[in-house]
Design brief:
Strand 1 and strand 2 form a beta hairpin. The protein folds into 2 domains: about 1-30 and about 170-233, Helix Hairpins; about 35-145. Helix content is about 80%, strand content about 5%. The chain is mostly helical. It has helices at about 5-30, 35-80, 85-170, 175-185, 210-215; strands at about 190-195, 200, 230. It has a 3-stranded mixed sheet with strand order 2-1-3. The structure holds zinc ion (ZN). Zinc ion (ZN) binds near residues 199, 202, 204 and 226. The site of zinc ion (ZN) has 9 residues, from loops.
Length: about 230
């Protein structure tokens, strides 16, 4: 193989390696990003906490109502039990029962309101859980796809690297050094294609004799303007 072509191929392989490594890095970032799933789970936890707090509130009100009912029953037993005969005391108990009944009615109104909220919070929790399941499913599917892509890119990269190593062995150290130094100082392009007598890297029209020398492939010919190695077919 003509040396300029070898170096040009090496450059193409270098670009492929770089592309594959970038693709792997970006896949790695996407694979480790489970932000949407965590957010959906946090939403479920928040909804569950709200529903739980409302149920606790409902239970507390129900206990208060029971307590009221027991007090009312106890007072009424005293009132109709026949043991209390003092009219003043009886009126006092009657007043107490009236107050307790009013309090109980107020608590019952409150508990109805809270029960409505409990129902709404259960519905919200169900919705959040449904949403989280959907988000997780989608994420899992994407994750699997990313893993497949990663395996593909990694195996492609290994192949390219092997090809690179084989090609590298056929090129002398001196030429490799020239290639690498040009690559690092000229924006990653050490070898420029010549098309219609023009250096594709810098766009200059090359003298005819330079193009011919490059085409012959007997030696490494450099662009008269950008100094890159010329590759002419
Ligand atoms: Zn040039």
């Amino acid at each position: 193989m003509v040396l300029a072509r070898q170096l040009y191929t090496l450059q193409e392989l270098d670009a492929q390696v770089q592309q594959a490594q970038q693709a792997l890095a970006s896949l790695e970032v996407r694979l480790s990003d489970d932000g949407v799933v965590r957010q959906a789970r946090e939403e479920v936890a928040r909804a569950r906490g709200q529903a739980e707090a409302l149920r606790v509130q409902q239970r507390a009100l129900e206990l208060d109502i029971e307590e009221c009912a027991e007090k009312i029953a106890a007072s009424e037993r005293r009132m109709y039990g026949g043991r209390v005969t003092n009219p003043k005391e009886l009126v006092g108990i009657q007043e107490e029962v009236k107050l307790l009944k009013r309090r109980k009615a107020g608590l019952e109104d409150q508990v109805l309101g809270v029960m409505e909220q409990v129902e709404a919070s259960q519905a919200a929790l169900g919705q959040a859980a449904e949403q989280a399941r959907a988000v997780e499913q989608k994420w899992q599917a994407e994750h699997q796809q990313f893993l497949q892509e990663k395996a593909q890119v990694a195996s492609q990269l290994a192949e390219t690297q092997q090809e690179y190593a084989r090609l590298e062995q056929t090129i002398t150290l001196k030429e490799l050094e020239l290639y690498r130094s040009l690559r690092s100082t000229r924006g990653g392009i050490a070898v420029a294609r010549v098309e219609r007598g023009i250096c594709r890297a810098c766009g200059i029209a090359l003298p005819q004799h330079v193009v011919q020398r490059a085409r012959s492939g007997q030696e490494l010919v450099r662009c008269t303007s950008c100094n890159r190695i010329l590759f002419a077919e």
